[in-house]
Design a protein that fits this description.
By secondary structure, the protein is of the alpha/beta class. The chain has a single domain, classed as TIM Barrel (Alpha-Beta Barrel), CATH 3.20.20.70. Helix content is 35%, strand content 16%. The chain has ten helices and eight strands. Helix 5 runs parallel beside helix 7 and helix 7 packs parallel to helix 8. The protein is globular. The structure holds phosphoenolpyruvate (PEP). The site of phosphoenolpyruvate (PEP) has 13 residues, from strand 8. The site of phosphoenolpyruvate has 13 residues, from strand 8. Belongs to the triosephosphate isomerase family.
Length: 244
């Protein structure tokens, strides 16, 4: 029997918007969301997270887009898990392809997994992103790439209730080229085989829109979405509604 998994919709606002614009987005989109039995999490830039959290009037939660690799200490420019917990923030996105694959950032698999484990072991929940490039897909390396990205996490995590996996093919992020529901379902089913627990949620990310959300969420192994561009507009309301 298939495990019941609570659906999850994340909105990744990336490095966009002034504070005023993000507060407007809270008014016009986030505070209009009505749901129960779903997790909805939005992720503003870290500098905005407190005023955004204070402006949210419903059960939408907030997530950081990254976290430092150590606790408090002499790590200039880093945010530690203690800072995050202090402000009652529960979620952090880690391993987004824009942090893995941007040459000037180039976070390694081990570095990302170690940050995830540190966060989880200290009570935070992690949206852990994985995904293949177009070249890797064309070379039929998708499964090997995903396994390599997941392995350091699978080897170390003990409490999987604090992990959501986001499968985001790099070729689909911000390109308008959404994975077909069949392709996404096949990959999600393969990812699930790599995970120790059937109850772990696996999100799809990559050009999710109000028009393709319903068919994607209809796939048995797709438990929700990580949404970039469409989370910055009213379309996010339709995407959340499609998952109810
Ligand atoms: C993302 O940045 O995680 C993402 C999926 O972006 P988009 O929805 O714009 O493709």
């Amino acid at each position: 029997m298939q495990a019941q998994r609570k659906r999850f919709i994340g909105g990744n606002w990336k490095s966009n918007n002034t504070l005023a614009k993000s507060l407007e987005l809270v008014d016009s989109v986030v505070n209009k969301l009505e749901f129960d039995n779903l997790d909805v999490v939005v992720s503003p830039v870290s500098l905005h997270i407190v005023p955004i959290q204070q402006a949210i009037k419903n059960n939408v939660q907030v997530a950081l887009q990254n976290i430092g690799h150590k606790g408090f200490g002499a790590f200039t420019g880093e945010l530690s898990f203690e800072h995050v917990k202090d402000l009652k923030i529960n979620w952090v996105i880690l391993g987004h392809s824009e942090r893995r694959r941007t040459p000037e950032i180039s976070e390694s698999e081990e570095f990302i997994a170690n940050k995830a484990v540190l966060a989880i072991n200290n009570g935070l929940s992690v949206i852990f992103c994985i995904g293949e490039t177009i070249q890797e897909m064309e070379a039929k390396e998708t499964q090997a790439v995903l396994e390599k990205q997941l392995k350091p996490l699978v080897d170390q995590v003990k409490d999987w209730s604090k992990v959501v996996i986001a499968y985001e093919p790099v070729w689909a992020i911000g390109t308008g080229k959404t994975a077909t529901p069949e392709y996404a379902e096949e990959i999600h089913a393969n990812i699930r085989k790599l995970l120790p627990d059937q109850s772990i949620r696996i999100l799809y990310g990559g050009s999710v829109t109000k028009d393709n959300a319903a068919v994607l969420i209809g796939q048995p192994n797709i438990d929700g979405f990580l949404v970039g561009g469409a989370s910055l507009k009213e379309d996010f309301i339709h995407i959340v509604n499609a998952c109810k």
